[in-house]
Every structure is written in structure tokens, then in C-alpha cells.
Design goal:
Elements lengths: L30 H13 L10 H10 L3 H10 L3 H10 L6 H13 L6 H13 L16
Length: about 140
């Protein structure tokens, strides 16, 4: 993973993938990837990726923020650490152990295991013509 103090560059996600969902900022899994997809969406270069997908929404629900609030923070952030700091300071305040536990759960999670999330996930997979049902790395967000 690159230095998170590096400037955020608007990626063309039709040419390169976003960070792995495992790449963390501020301790949060999913956040780095959400930043990449958000910035690409703002720049008009999301490729096959979708900002505010089910995976991103898990982060937003955990923090008690909206995708709009996250997008506004990402839009003005110069580097990934600034977004990590913003996440730590906004929405529902979480302790280090809570963030670590949640992030570990995300890495081991599969939407297919959760009855409440399964239907939404399968619907999205069908809508985006994904042939196989995958977990963590592929859900609703491209490869």
C-alpha cells in the first residue's frame, strides 16, 4: 500500500483498480477503496466501479454518516490520512478497538451469510450482470 500522506490522485478506474477493501485509513477497512471510487466518480472516470455501493454503505452505516457527507470530505481532502482523520472525528465516535473489530469483521464477512444483506447483494449482482456471487473483494464494486 502506498503512503497515505501521498496526494489523492483522481484514478481512471476503467484503466486501474481502486485500493483493496483491506487497505485501511484511520484504521477503517473499506475506506481507502471508497475514497478511490468517490474521487473517480467525481472526475467522471468510475469505469465499472460504483461509489455508494453496498460495501461503501457498510462503512457509512458503521460511522453514522451519509455518502454525501463522505463525498464532501473526500472532495476537499488532499491525502488519504485527511479522510481517515475526518472519519475518526465525524459521525458516531468509535474507539480504536471498535474500529479494529469492525474492520476485521468486514474482512471476514460475506454478504451471503447475512439474510438481511443477501437479497440486496444478489439483486445488485444480477443488475450488474455478475456471473458469480463473491464476497468482500468483488461485491458490487467491480473486481
Amino acid at each position: 500500500m502506498r503512503n497515505m500522506k501521498t496526494l489523492i490522485v483522481d484514478l481512471d478506474l476503467s484503466k486501474q483498480p481502486p485500493h483493496s477493501p483491506r487497505a485501511r485509513i484511520g484504521g477503517f477497512a473499506l475506506a481507502c477503496r471508497a475514497v478511490d471510487k468517490c474521487r473517480a466518480s467525481l472526475a467522471g472516470t468510475p469505469g465499472e466501479y460504483h461509489f455508494d455501493c453496498a460495501l461503501d454503505q457498510q462503512l457509512f452505516r458503521f460511522k453514522g454518516i451519509t455518502s454525501g457527507e463522505f463525498k464532501a470530505a473526500v472532495k476537499v481532502a488532499k491525502n488519504y490520512d485527511e479522510v481517515g482523520t475526518w472519519l475518526l472525528e465525524h459521525g458516531q465516535l468509535k474507539t480504536g478497538p471498535e474500529i479494529e473489530d469492525w474492520s476485521e469483521d468486514q474482512e471476514g464477512d460475506s454478504l451471503m451469510k447475512d439474510p438481511e444483506k443477501r437479497a440486496y447483494f444478489v439483486e445488485d449482482c444480477h443488475e450488474w450482470r455478475l456471473d458469480k456471487v463473491t464476497s468482500f473483494c468483488g461485491i458490487c464494486c467491480g473486481a
